[in-house]
């Protein structure tokens, strides 16, 4: 797939608003070295200048910070401190590091509030490290990002579509789906194992937001399309009794989901079906279908095809629940536009979309009404509910 940037079409020109002109003047003023020197020295502007300098340096140092987090995860430091403080020497011994190297790591993690180096060389969990204890979802994503960071070593080459990023080979599901009708025989179970493991580990973070935002108990049958190994419907099963559960995914993934259902004691309530949700008809019978972190893996034309297939599979009173991280979300704009924008670029397909754009595609697919539901943590996921009839 050619990931090279396409040249946008020129639209009608408009005059900038007064607010836009003021913002442009302000930024051009800040760009002047003389103004920067004055702002850093003047007592009233000095706090703002220091704050902006810190924010800019954090952008520069972000990769270093993330690697400190990765070191703590790989050395299992957070779990090590789950039961309380430990002497620095004990942490060094358990990590297999020298005392000096451990002190450097702990001091760095302390500055990031991941750890807390107390008096007497005692190490304990920090404000941001405590939530990582036994949190498989976050630690799995931290490990996974080593692949992404490798692809981002040369971001300009990535933007120009030069070379083949490792991330593109990591997601065989999306790659196969975008290849066109029919699934390659080479997409065997072992090819999707690593992908499915990560999705299974990280899914509860999103599932918690979706289940809190939408009441699935009003439905009889839920089918999670692109549902992987069944992690999302497992979460629904634990919170919503009585709903019949289904998963539709690639045959190799569906096989793993059915194995999981047997192991989780859900075999009598949950079943997975294999197929291609772009080329194959989806099974009928569900009155609610969920798409959890599926649409943003694909370009607009493929997403529209998927939405139309979902609409055909639903009854006239059916509902689609779509959940994923979205662009242009107030307060968390960098998550959608910066993080997922480049994450999906490295994948070689897909894009983050705003709720407005997704709503437009859902209407084009035949859904009569679409509404957005608030979530507790918008950086994890936004939720849209589309109904077949108004």
From TrEMBL:
- Please indicate if the UniProt record lists Repeat as a keyword: no
Q: Which Gene3D superfamilies match?
A: 1.10.287.1350, Vaccinia Virus protein VP39, Winged helix-like DNA-binding domain superfamily/Winged helix DNA-binding domain
One molecular function GO term is: methyltransferase activity
Species assigned in the record: Rubrivivax benzoatilyticus
Q: What is this protein called?
A: Methyltransferase
All residue ranges annotated as the O-methyltransferase C-terminal domain in the record: 189-368
Q: List, alphabetically, the SUPFAM superfamilies matched.
A: S-adenosyl-L-methionine-dependent methyltransferases, Winged helix' DNA-binding domain
Pfam short name (any one): Methyltransf_2
| One Gene Ontology biological process | methylation
């Amino acid at each position: 797939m050619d990931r090279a940037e396409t040249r946008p079409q020129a639209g009608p020109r408009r005059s900038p608003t007064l607010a836009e002109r003021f913002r442009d003047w302000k930024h051009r003023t800040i760009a002047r070295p003389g103004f920067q020197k004055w702002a850093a020295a003047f007592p009233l502007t000095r706090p703002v200048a220091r704050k902006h300098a810190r924010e800019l340096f954090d952008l520069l140092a972000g990769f270093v910070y993330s690697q400190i987090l990765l070191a703590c995860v790989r050395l299992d430091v957070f779990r090590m401190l789950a039961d309380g403080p430990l002497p620095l020497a004990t942490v060094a011994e358990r990590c297999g590091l020298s005392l000096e190297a451990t002190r450097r790591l702990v001091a760095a993690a302390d500055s990031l509030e991941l750890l807390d180096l107390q008096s007497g060389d005692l190490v304990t969990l920090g404000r941001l490290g405590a939530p990582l204890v036994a949190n498989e979802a976050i630690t799995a994503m931290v490990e996974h990002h080593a692949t992404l960071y490798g692809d981002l070593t040369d971001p300009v080459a990535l933007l120009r579509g030069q070379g083949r990023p490792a991330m593109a080979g990591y997601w065989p599901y999306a790659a196969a789906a975008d290849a066109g009708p029919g699934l390659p025989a080479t997409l065997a179970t072992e090819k999707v194992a690593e992908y499915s493991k990560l999705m299974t580990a990280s899914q509860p973070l999103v599932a918690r937001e979706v289940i809190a935002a939408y009441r699935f108990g009003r439905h009889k049958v839920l089918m999670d399309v692109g549902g992987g190994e069944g992690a999302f419907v497992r979460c629904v099963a634990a919170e919503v009794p009585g709903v019949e559960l289904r998963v539709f995914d690639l045959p190799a993934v569906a096989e793993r989901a059915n194995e999981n259902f047997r192991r989780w004691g859900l075999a009598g309530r949950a079943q997975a079906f294999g197929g291609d949700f772009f080329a194959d008809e989806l099974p009928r019978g569900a009155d609610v279908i969920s798409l959890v972190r599926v649409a943003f893996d694909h370009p607009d034309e493929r997403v529209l095809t998927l939405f139309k297939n979902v609409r055909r599979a639903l009854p006239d009173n059916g509902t689609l629940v779509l959940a994923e991280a979205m662009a242009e979300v107030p307060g968390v704009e960098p998550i959608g536009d910066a993080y997922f924008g480049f994450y999906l670029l490295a994948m070689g397909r897909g894009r983050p979309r705003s709720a407005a754009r997704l709503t437009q595609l859902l209407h084009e697919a035949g859904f009569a009404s679409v509404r957005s539901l608030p979530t507790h943590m918008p950086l994890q996921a936004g939720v849209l509910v589309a109904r077949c009839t108004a």
